[in-house]
Amino acid sequence: MELKKSVLIGLGVLGVIGIGYVIYWDYMRQNDREFRKKWTEKLRQAAAEVAKDRITAFVKKAVDEVSKENFPTDVAAKEKYFMDQVSNGETLLAEGKERHLDAALCFYKALKVYPNPVELIMIYQKTVPEAVVNVIYEMMSFEMNVRVGEISESSSLGDIRRGLFATKDFWPGDVIFDEQPIASALDPDLETGDYCSYCLKELSGDPISDDTDLFEAVYCSKTCHEKAMSEYATLLFTNRDKSDTESKESQLVHLVKSGNVKYPLMIARFLAKMVHEETQKVITGEEEEYSTWDHIERLRFLNVPSNDKETNEIKLLRELFAAKQIKAGEELRTSYISVGHRNLESRRNELESKWKFRCTCAKCLSEESTTEQSFIEEKN
Hints:
mainly alpha; 4 domains; two-stranded antiparallel sheet; 54% helix; extended
């Protein structure tokens, strides 16, 4: 009986406290503007978290679904598939926000068969609601295993505040993501006849060569040879006389080979490709809304990574590999040189010698500070 009485008293006290809190909360809600503001913000944040979790779950499921789909390979079939997906996406958009995720999936599928994904993304940015475009970005990031995020640590470059972060764990040798470059070139010491000069693949079987090529380039297929000739080789090397050492073509070859650098040739190919695109517009009469010209303004924001001059370098132009174990959430970094266990002075000397700049990254600044502190302690 005493136990029952104690329980009833306890429940009564809890009830009074609960009612008192409800009365207090309702009073604050009606009379305290700051309280209402904070409470509304909490509700908004909770709703945003729920929406974010819903989108994340949808993206994972959608990307998995797309990865298992057999996309058409025929040009006509691709065009029909693309038009169907875009039409479905537009229909779903018209049905309201509750169908935005399904619409994003349709637009993402259309992106998979479109010949110029960057161009299509730019079109989406102009014609599709921002929320839907953001979901498409999430799908692309999830598929590539990386995401763009804020850099927490301070940087010596004040204008760079974002970085690339892994969305899953990687082991050494794992492919993080792959993509096709706008322009590429083999390192001069890899122009040995072992790799295709256009797609950079290691050659197997009988390669296709061109006796008039000043770089003595070889190709893995007739397709690569024809693409190289049409996109840049014919324009860059109008004079193919190897005995004419005074020609501009021969001087470019000498610059690349004597300096053992690939970037002059890569830049030349990039510029030639832009001319090729403009020429094709005149020939076909088709005017694309976006082309390689539109990327020039963005190039000033890029840092061109490079690794040791070894065979694996050619893969870096198409695939990004993990050099060490990477945990999900870690920032992805590339290095101009091989770092290993080398000290600060050794790394900086090579950077200044080959790349003409003094590195002030977080790693170097941290080691520099430690070295200076050790020197002061030894001096004292």
